[in-house]
Amino acid sequence: MIKKSTLEKIIQEDLSDIWSILDGDEKRRIVENFTTHTFKKNQIIYAEDEVPESLWCLLKGKVKLYKDGIGGRQQILRLIRPVQYFGYRAFFAGESYNSTAAAFEPSVLGSIPMDIVEELIHNNIKLAWFFIHELSRNLGGSDTKIVNLTQKHIRGRLAEALIALRDSYGYEDDNATLKIYMAREDLANLSNMTTSNAIRTLSGFVAEKILVVDGRRIKIINENALRKISKFG
User: Fold this and answer.
1) Contact predicate 116/33, CB 8 Å
2) Other CB atoms closer than 10 Å to residue 74's CB: what's the count?
3) How many other CB atoms sit within 10 Å of the CB of residue 230?
4) pTM (predicted TM-score)
5) What is the 3-state secondary structure (H, E, C) of 78-94?
6) Please, what's the b/e burial string for 89-113 (b: 16 or more CB within 10 A of its CB; e: otherwise)?
7) In 3D, which of 53, 61, 115, 122 has the Cα closest to residue 87?
8) pLDDT averages per 10-residue partition of the chain, 233 residues
């Protein structure tokens, strides 16, 4: 059981963008209804077709949103980084979840019941605008991804995925190794290609001295070249 003072500190530090637009009573409602959860690697947070009940916030770790396609092949829709909110779109749309969320690595998340969020939105226009802004940004990102996945060649799609990982999670202390370790299958699912194509394309980038690959560790040694491939597809 987390102490109230510790919980309030977690919320203030990790949910600061929401915390700053709430008044005293609204902050109390958040603290009283905020729950922390620990998930193991690959553990499902919520599944497609479930009824949305919570606003989720990733505090530590990494989360993937994905959808099962033809033949059970996954398409990774989005990778969540700390501190991002997710799981609320379906509630606002009056729908069940249309994708699954799972921990990509051991992760800590916070949740707030959506009925509490809805109550706060009714009384705080700034909070309403916060979610409008988040939904609009996500929609714009989805539109861009659709175009890129359908029009870019394989090299461009994989390069874009690697740049997205770099921009989302950054580098290790060497300022070159991606701070996320992905299996070839996950890279393929993120880039909308087969695993064999992902392996061949990755090997091509290594041969061109754009990357150094060691198992699941990927070091970008020529970021400019990778961004150029990503841009022009």
Assistant:
1) yes
2) 17
3) 20
4) 0.81
5) EEECCCCEECCHHHHHC
6) bbbeeeeebebbbbbbeebbbbbbe
7) 53
8) 56 65 89 94 96 95 89 84 93 95 95 95 92 88 72 88 90 93 91 92 95 94 93 77
